[in-house]
Amino acid sequence: METRSSFKAMVPLLLALLVMRASAADDGPVAFFNNYNVKLDLDAETPGPQYPVPPVVIEKPKIFIGTSAYRDMACPGTLFDAFNKAEHPERLYMGVIDQAAYGDEDCVVGYCRLWHEKLNDTRVCPYFQHIKLTRLPSFDAKGPTKARHFQGDLIDGQDFCMQVDSHTMFTENWDTKFLDMWYSVKNEYAVLTTYLPGAENYGIENFAGRNEVPHICNLMWAGGDILRNSIAAACSNLPRPKLTTIWAAGLSFSKCHGEIAVPYDPFLPQVFDGEEISKAARMWTRGYDFYTPHRNYIWHIYKRMRRGEWYADGSKSGEQRTYEKEDPEAMSGQERQAKEKATSTKRLQTLFRIKGGSGEDLGMYNLGTVRSYHQWLEFVGVNYTTHTIDTQTRCGNLVWVPNDPPSQDPPSPSEDSRGAEAEIQRLKAELSLATARISQLSLLRLSQRGHTPRTRTRGGAVDDAVDGDDAGVHVDDPTEGADPGGYDLERVVQKMALEGVDTLAEDEQASSSRQPRHHKWWQRIHGDEEASEHDGALHDRIVFMENVGALVAVVVVGAIFVCVRMYKGHNNSAKNRRLAAKQTGKV
Question: pTM of the entire structure?
Answer without folding.
Answer: 0.69
